[in-house]
Amino acid sequence: MSDSVFLAGDENWWRQAVVYQVYPRSFKDSNGDGLGDIKGITSKADYIAELGVDAIWLSPFYPSALADGGYDVADYRDVDPKLGSLADFDEMIKAYHDRGIRVFADVVPNHSSDLHVWFQEALQSEPGSAARDRYIFRDGKGESGELPPNDWPSHFGPTSWTRTTNADGTPGQWYLHLFAPEQPDFNWDNEEVIEDFKKTMRFWSDRGVDGFRIDVAHALKKDMSEPYPHIENYDVKHIPLDGSHHLFDRDDVMEIYKGWREIFNSYNPPRVAVAEAWVPAERRPRYASMETLGQAFNFDLLAAPWSAKKFKKSIEFNLDLSEKSGSSSTWVLSNHDVVRHATRYGLPKKTDYEKWVMTDGNSPELDRELGQSRARAATMLLLALPGSTYMYQGEELGLFEVADLPGQVLQDPIWLRDGMTRKGRDGCRVPLPWETTGSSFGFGTGAAHLPQPTWFAGFSVEFEEKQEDSTLKLYRAALKLRKELLTSETLEWVPSKRKVVHFKRDNGWHNITNFGKKPVALPVGTVLLTSAPLVEGKLPGNSTAWIKE
Ligand code: GLC
Ligand code: CA
Q1: pLDDT above 70 (res 1)
Q2: Handedness of CA 377, 383, 386, 388 (dihedral sign)
């Protein structure tokens, strides 16, 4: 492929970039089959350019049976025919590159789909064969191997083991899957696995992909020696700091990423990557080091309640960490795995969101207006911080979680695999509303693969383009200003009231976020943008102002 598919430029472009996450199936449907697709993404290149982000990150678009929304990949080097073709992909990259927007692909190295040719081959091969060694097969316990090899749970249900059936119909070995049974875990001690992923990295890099988001980056290497330890759950709290957990954040996972780094650096500009690694914060710099992936998601603000103290602490802590790794910090409020932040911020602090979703969103304590104000304020705060921001499709419209999806339409494996006790993540994956009318609010010409609520009309792009104070307009204004104001990756705290987060950048750009209820006075300077109208010159509660000295 010629060099023209590459987007040239400063090799540090990513350090303070804003990356917009596209969840392909739910972004834009170009052919009316109800599923978002690659051509749909291409058709919205102007919209994304006008929004003002630096890059888009596509959640998996590879061939997949969609057992886990595409995070069950059947072929790492192709496009799902339901979503388009490689030619469509090339066209899409070109459309974005032409507008100066970079493209990230999502790589899922911990597990494949059970439909991957390697897994199918493994099922048809003998225990102990080379084909089985690419995955993690073990004999069962009990008299005739009828019990799973150990008690490890899966993220989506009670067990991470599924038993296979031999060619003659008798029960066979078990295989490990930390997620759904349709997502068998790879054996990362196997050379073929290592080499194949290098090939995948080159394949997409050659096609012009600028960066990679690495799914479950902390889980690839495992200690499968016996005796197996008892593992109750996979809470990050239980991952020790010394790399000794049997499944997560083992020290030698870095060897894999060092290998990828060589590949990234062989391109100009070097390809970049960001790790999704659910590890103790202190261990994040290992993933974010310039010798490994280069960036790691920091989900601390996503997990933080609406509190000035917590936000400030987390910002300080993460800026410190990024200094340690030599990377820039990342900031995130929403993604395809969590309840949308406009909803989270409208609920009482200690809410268990998984339980709340089970109420169909009908619990009286949800205050949407409050959630909306805080979400707008939080976004402005994030965009004023040094480092890069990852935003999730639909947050620029101020979308709320669709919490009342009925059980029969849910697609998330969490719902069925965990005995219908947890609804899972579909509520933030409902297709985007582009227009105020139509069978799927302009998502496509047909229906949407997850039903959209009627209130989506008032959150559609068409509607918000006409409202001066819409969230879409706020995002556009903030992103435009951010580009103009971007400066060194430092921040200085300005003394403030307890419920206020006030910092300034070295060019006199102030961010003041009022986490409390009472309006606060603003410092002297030019007010550049506010997330809510000022009240007698003061900044109202739950809002943010940017000021230039
Ligand atoms: C990551 C993805 C999530 C997926 C899981 C398994 O956490 O963000 O959506 O279910 O990995 O691949
Ligand atoms: Ca489609």
Answers
A1: no
A2: positive
